[in-house]
Write a structure and sequence with these properties.
Number of strands: 19
Structural class: alpha/beta
CATH superfamily of one domain: FAD/NAD(P)-binding domain
CATH architecture of one domain: 3-Layer(bba) Sandwich
Helix content: 25-40%
Bound molecules: flavin-adenine dinucleotide
Shape: globular
């Protein structure tokens, strides 16, 4: 009999497992892959370390979920803080996304018309509220009396003023601000796509503001890749009596007296509690009737989701770069996709652990809509991406020593995720924050976290979902 079985070793699962290990439980993590981390991880190929998915890292400032996890557990993650979090390349110009909000307002006013000062003042204020609220209100969304009591105890009545932005789209705020600039609209849409997985019409401005101000918080780089974010968390869990088993894909979950039976291909495990860190799309077909029913109405279809086309490149740079992260806006959709931008992340030039031969490592990704019904021709997209990179003088094809790419099918294999969809559930205006997938799956000991649960987007969201799942499990049973 295990204390708690955790399905998957993504950043959401690992956060929940670490927080439960801190409380004295001994989590057993079952991971279908041969290594941990899912979309937040790294792998060796031909003498280079490539990131599996995520490349940007935010969440280490005060009140943010990752900082909360590290403070609670004492886990240490050495990072390099980036001076210039991102550059956006559009219309032949380079827009510097400075972290300092005052500097960023001046930069935004230089590139876009309308009252940029006011737009970003409001957005930044909201983002501060979102982050402070995120770790303070871990009972959100409330589903039981105990959650309401916890919220009432901590609530500040003034928070209602900020919370009302959950009813308004980012687009409506742009319209109200009289910013009638098509370039600003394009800028906001593509920025939201990488942080909220949807465009300004569909993202509520509470989350939209936090997503747009992503670069106004500390952005960090971890030497050796994001596997070095994941490994210390696993070490902590193991040190506290937990265990992780690889190549142990969960095939079935059953409810039995006082717990759950969890079946893999070769074993059956029993536990008192269950944490699922896999997408609800994956959990539903292998789960109990109650869990199936509880998530049924929340499941998004392939048409509402994205996968990613990703390229990993090792190359010898012929220039230096002001920032590691670049969003490149395209005049025409990228050949073979509907994407209007690509995202490029570079390894840190002083990080010698990313390549045996001193190459710089580039990770490039772009969205693929409706992955189940979209055919992609990898060679065509790779060529189109390389042409964009050459045109923007990032990489010459002749400087490349190794390149490879992956699409929805690779994501299905690597993470097991339905249709290879990644990046989390996109924001949709009709789904208010309190209507997203709640951590409690059956009110009997099973919990959900990861990037399909509240608020689950990107590393900060998935980490927060893990904190919430652990907190709700603890408040329900201890
Ligand atoms: C290309 C790309 C770029 C991104 N860029 C960023 C970024 O720059 N910054 C950022 O913050 N976020 C980024 N993200 C998003 C971020 O990586 C993810 O949202 C986050 O890592 C998801 O974590 P998770 O815990 O929800 O799940 P996952 O990472 O999907 O982990 C789930 C784990 O469960 C395992 N699993 C699945 N099914 C089973 C099963 N049946 N049994 C056992 N194990 C199973 C999988 O193998 C996987 O290891 C990016 C994502 C992608 C794909």
């Amino acid at each position: 009999m295990q204390d708690v079985i955790v399905i998957g070793s993504g950043i959401g699962s690992l956060t929940a497992a670490a927080m439960l290990a801190k409380r004295g439980l001994k989590p057993l993590i079952l991971e279908q892959n041969w290594q941990p981390g899912g979309c937040t991880s790294s792998y060796w190929r031909k003498g280079h370390v490539f990131e599996t998915g995520a490349t940007t890292l935010v969440g280490l400032d005060d009140h943010m979920p990752l900082k909360f996890l590290l403070d609670e557990t004492g886990i240490k993650i050495p990072t390099r803080k980036l001076d210039l979090p991102m550059q956006v390349h559009m219309n032949g110009k380079v827009i510097n996304r400075y972290q300092d909000i005052e500097r960023w307002k001046v930069e935004a006013s230089k590139h876009f018309s309308g009252d940029q000062e006011k737009f970003w003042r409001v957005a930044y204020g909201l983002s501060q509220f979102v982050w402070k609220a995120s770790t303070r209100y871990q009972s959100f969304p409330p589903a039981k009396t105990v959650d309401w009591i916890d919220l009432a105890r901590k609530a500040n009545p003034m928070d209602v003023l900020d919370a009302r932005f959950a009813f308004k789209s980012t687009q409506s705020i742009i319209d109200k601000s009289d910013i009638d600039d098509p370039n600003f609209k394009r800028f906001v849409d593509e920025q939201l796509l990488i942080t909220a997985q949807n465009r300004a019409e569909e993202v509520n401005h509470l989350f939209g503001a936090a997503a747009l101000c992503y670069t106004n918080y500390g952005n960090h780089y971890i030497d050796g890749g994001l596997i070095n974010l994941v490994n210390p968390i696993i070490e902590y869990i193991q040190k506290n009596g937990g265990q992780i088993i690889y190549r142990a894909g969960v095939k079935q979950v059953k409810k039995v007296n006082h717990g759950y039976l969890v079946e893999t291909k070769s074993n059956t495990y029993k536990s008192k509690y269950l944490i699922s860190g896999i997408p609800v799309n994956n959990l539903q077909p292998i789960s109990t009737d109650i869990i199936r029913k509880s998530v049924h109405k929340k499941i998004l279809t392939s048409r509402q989701l994205y996968s990613a086309f990703q390229m990993g490149i090792a190359f010898k740079p012929n220039r230096s770069f002001e920032s590691l992260h670049h969003q490149i806006h395209l005049e025409q959709p990228l050949t073979g996709t509907n994407s209007r931008s690509i995202f490029l992340s570079l390894s840190h030039p002083e990080d010698e652990s990313r390549s045996d031969d001193g190459s710089l490592i580039a990770s490039i990704s772009t969205h693929i809509a409706d992955p189940q019904n979209t055919q992609i021709i990898s060679e065509e997209i790779e060529e189109a991406i390389l042409n964009v990179l050459e045109a923007h003088q990032f990489i010459n094809k002749s400087d490349i020593s190794f390149q490879h790419s992956s699409g929805p099918k690779s994501w299905m294999k690597w993470t097991g995720r339905a249709f290879g969809f990644v990046g989390g559930y996109p924001q949709y205006l009709k789904t208010k924050p309190w209507q997203m997938v709640e951590a409690r799956l059956d009110h009997a000991g099973a919990y959900q976290c990861g990037d399909t649960a509240y608020p689950g987007q990107g590393i900060p969201g998935a980490t927060l979902s893990g904190l919430i799942a652990a907190k709700k499990l603890a408040s329900d049973w201890f």
